[in-house]
Design brief:
CATH superfamily of the largest domain: NAD(P)-binding Rossmann-like Domain
Distance between the termini: 12 Å
Order of helices and strands: EEEHEEEEEHEHEHEHEHEHEHEHE
Helix content: 25-40%
CATH architecture of the largest domain: 3-Layer(aba) Sandwich
Radius of gyration: 20 Å
Structural class: alpha/beta
Number of domains: 2
CATH topology of the largest domain: Rossmann fold
Strand content: 15-25%
CATH class of the largest domain: Alpha Beta
Number of helices: 9
Amino acid sequence: MKAAIVLEPGKAPVYGDFKEPVAGDGEVRINVNAAALSNVVRSRASGKHYSSSGDLPFVVGIDGVGRLDDGRRVYFVLPRPPLGSMSERTVVSSGQCVALPDGLDDVTAAAIGIPGMSAWAAMKERAKLADGETVLVNGATGTAGRLAVQIAKYMGAKKIIATGRNIEVLKSLAALGADVTIPLVEDTDALEEAFRAQFADGVDIVVDYLWGPSAERLILAAAKAGKDAAPIRFVQIGSVSAPNITLPSAALRSSALELMGSGIGSIPLDRLVRSIDDLMQATAPGRFEIATKTVPLSAVEETWSTAANIPRIVFKVA
């Protein structure tokens, strides 16, 4: 079968032939229609992601949309290695598929799965978002951040604060549900002051896609504001800005700040799959927006190094 295959560490996948998969006990074979290119897919392909196995060769892609042999249309996640989603067929555990509603097309489902799940699981599984709470999305101008704004609104957030570097995209977030926007400026003192003003009014949850300097300032502002308030739940999801921060110990000792992560490993797989199912069922009624661009899988090599995250690239397999 045809697939996008990583043959060497650090090299882009190539379009070629891979061994036909055979489903084992408790597994199902999927005829793949579409698979999206996300940050986590790139990171795993490069061997840098914490969940990468390092074994070569392997097919790239961790999720997608396709049909079971009996014709049912499903979204699936985490095929059995060395298989991936960017191939004509793949094999996954039967518990790692969710049925798709008729009103949700293949391309949108494939594109929204990973970034939407990251927001849904962070707010529902980790932060336990309740109606009427205030959510701050740090890094709201990327694909996942834009979805986080929409999902927070859908889940009943009273107020949503969005941060980001792209000023034009930041302005557009008001139409998606953001009540306040904060540009991530280079002046760290000015940035911390802008954060402090929001925390003074009350912030219940921070969903962080960036880490790095902006996360440092957010944690300091949250710690200073949270001394006499309800705990602020800070959920770390991505590290687009930097892999590390400087965290003063006093920021944790002097406040009720709750610092946690959300991702593969911090949430049991069955609950991640349940989050994906909930997301897929909510996408059409919630009118979640995600920009997409479809590309044939045969063009994976030239697309891999040039594709941006907005719009989301979706490889059409069938």
